[in-house]
Amino acid sequence: MLYFEKRKSVSKGLKISIPLVSLIIGVLFGALAIAIVGINPYDVYKSLFLSAFGSWYVFSETLVSATPLLLITAGLILVFKMGVWNIGAYGQYIMGAIFSSYFAIFLPPDTSKPLMLLLMFFGGLIGGAIWAIIPAILKVFWEVNEVITTLLLNYIALYVLKFLMYGSWRNPTSYGFPLSKPFPDSAQLPIIFSHTRITLGFVFAVIAVLLIWFLISKTKFGYEVRVIGDNPTAAKYAGINVNKNIIIAMAISGALAGLAGMVQVSGIIHFLQVKINANYGYTSIIVAWISYLNPVMCFITSVLFGGLESGGYSIQISMRVSYGIVGLIESIALFSIVGAQIFLNYKLRWRK
Amino acid sequence: MKQFFGLLLVVFIVLFGFSGISNATDNKIKAAFLYVGPHNDGGWSQSHDEGRIYLQKHVPYVDTAYSETVPEGAPCEKIIRDYIHKGYKVIFGTSFGFMDSMYNVAKDYPDVIFEHCSGYKTRKNMGTYFGRMYQADYLSGIVAGMMTKTNYIGFVAPFPIPEVIREINSFTIGAREVNPKVEVHVIWTNSWFNPVKERSAANTFIANKADIIASGCDSPASIEGAKKAHIYAIGYDRDNHDKFPKTILTSRIWHWGVFYTKAIEEIKKGTWKSEQYWGGLKDGIVSLGKFGDTVPEKVKKYVLKRQKEIIDGKFKVFAGPIYDNKGKLRVKKGEELSDKDKLSMQWFVKGVVGTIPNK
Questions:
Q1: Any chain A CB within 8 A of the CB of B57?
Q2: Number of continuous H segments (helices) and E segments (strands) in chain A
């Protein structure tokens, strides 16, 4: 029978070839699905690539999609490095969006722009951090598994958002639709390249990734994080305050996810609503893994995933394929890349 | 790992080359349609798609494209910008929730024309369009009022917004005109397209002795529920009579092609102006569908008489006296509800059993 055997070490060649081969397999299966509905798969993939990277305009849209991925992934890399599984970026993103939107909705619209944006910036950080500190404290003091608490807090965040949008934060002139008042100009992040939607949020994202890189590889805190990740018991005996480090790292991770929520509502959507693309919180988990928890790598992976998302919308227009096909291509590619990760640490053996 | 991505990039470049996206330019007007549901949802979005196909067939100088299941909010805005970057000059948005995205993009592209269905925000280059569906709702209400035996009619309703409230009210006015004992019961699904919820709402009505189900939602799921229970239904959006000849009594139908053709012809001639279009039975943008096989001649005759009176302007659906379902007089005798009040309606007429949440 077939069984998995753990690899003793992972060679560099394997690290390169496994994702590459799995991506090719995913693309081939996607091609099969496209061919079944009677469209030329080559044309679809070509169009997908060109719609994500073919011109400055489409590339700018790819960067718009990559911005929240970068922010969230940066934080996830930090906690994943120490073996703490924060699945709650989805909820932290929503709480960041809610906290920052409070200022946009309830402060007078003529508040000066720097002050408004500063309040929203910290609102996003704090909202996300609170939602991450709760499971961190539960883990540290009562050993509650953070996978479960962070996941369940996602649903609570979503229902808090729904409660506000169907209740007191709803715009009275939206005819009953769950939308907040549109944000005033002072609450909208400035655009840094004209004729695109790339806002100051992209700068935040780049800085965040660089900060996390610096934190992990150049500071004592980062060293402790890595030791905890390798062996928490040894870390404790070496005199590292594991609990304190877990809470700090979770707070940073949540704050960055919250900031991603702020960047999305303030920079792109310009009002608060139930659908604020919080799924970035789940996609980022995949992005972090495919980046091998390397902050520099996450630049490339985030842009690729941003391209997959933004190109996916566009091929519906250029190739006139249905929405279902776009989703199918994306999920088959993702499934094979993520699924193949197992071969990185295990090899398939045959035993009689 | 870096090599991996380098390799990947090389593979992509070799495969596809940076040829850029080039579109053959001709003199056709390029018009894009955004649908909130699948283009073949059997209801609202499909009625718009049929309008698009009608336009494509009747106007030679137009080139159309559509995006389906467009999420409201940020993705919607991106899709509109994509179309404009691909040279599209006219954007038809067919859901209320696209309003703010269209309004935002319209500011950035003054030479692109935006037409938004069912909203209220306009710009110099952004108009709105909708139909007086309440006229067809009223007529279908007459049919329902004459055909019900239990006097309990269920109305599956999407959102508590004026458009839907108007539908329920005019339907009820029609039903009670011919049968004052009728009660119209309302369940909100809080979704335009959710076949599961629509079906379960229909089943709730059926369990409560309803013998006719009407729906303002976008899928025919409630009609299927009615068929299974061997009771009647009132169709919406499109004429599904052929699929449910014994179930559907009649339908309220959109003919969006009428408006799309008018708009594109005006754009071609250069006479297009931003307006708030609200056509009715007379303009042909809304109509009553085929009558069901079991509807007696007597009923048909009465309905067609009223239809002619509406078209000739002799009969008004919202003519007083109209009381709301709490007993307050809303429209005095001899008066008619103004268009402004119709468009912002937030109350139910007498005979509707249900509440409008969180006014």
A1: no
A2: 14, 2
Identify the H or E element spanning B75: helix B74-85
Task: Answer whether CATH 3.40.50.300 is correct for domain B133-253+287-353.
Answer: no
Rounded CA separation B235/B253 (Å)? 8
Identify which of B86, B212, B228 has the alpha carbon closest to the alpha carbon of residue B151.
Answer: B212
d(CA B323, CA A306): 55
Spatial distance between the Cα atoms of A216 and B265, rounded to a whole number of angstroms: 63
pLDDT score of B18:
43
With tokens 């924060």, the residue in question is A86
Residue B133: the pLDDT is 94
| Phi and psi at residue A312, to the nearest 5° | -60, -40
By CB atoms closer than 10 A (0-12, 13-18, 19+), residue A157 is buried
| Phi, then psi, of B41 in degrees rounded to 5 | -75, -5
Nearest to A175 among B15, B162, B357 (CB): B162
Lowest average pLDDT, out of B56-65, B146-155, B188-197, B252-261, goes to B188-197
The CATH code of the domain at B29-131 is 3.40.50.2300
Q: What does DSSP assign to residue B165?
A: H
Rounded to an integer, the average pLDDT of A324-337 is 81
Which chain A residues are closer than 8 Å to B165 by Cβ?
Answer: none
Three-state secondary-structure class, residue B319: strand
Residues of chain B with CATH 3.40.50.2300: 29-131, 133-253+287-353
* pLDDT score of A332: 85
State ipTM.
0.72
Q: From CA B281, how far away is CA B132, in angstroms rounded?
A: 7
Cβ pair B218, B156 in contact under 8 A: no
Residue contact A175–B79, C-beta within 8 A: no
Q: What percent of chain A is modeled with pLDDT above 70?
A: 99
Tell me the pTM.
0.80
Tell me the three state secondary structure of residue A5.
strand
B22 touches chain A (CB under 8 A): no
For residue B285, CA distances in Å to A229, B63, B219 come to 66, 22, 20
CB neighbourhood size of A5 (10 A): 10
- Chain A residue numbers with beta carbons less than 8 Å from the beta carbon of B161 are 175-177
Q: Checking phi first, is residue A239 left (phi over 0); if not, alpha (psi -120 to 50) or beta?
A: left
Q: At A2, phi and psi to the nearest 5? A: -85, 145
Q: Is the previous residue joined to A184 through a cis bond, with omega within 30 degrees of 0?
A: no
Which of A301-315, B114-128, B150-164 has the lowest average pLDDT?
A301-315
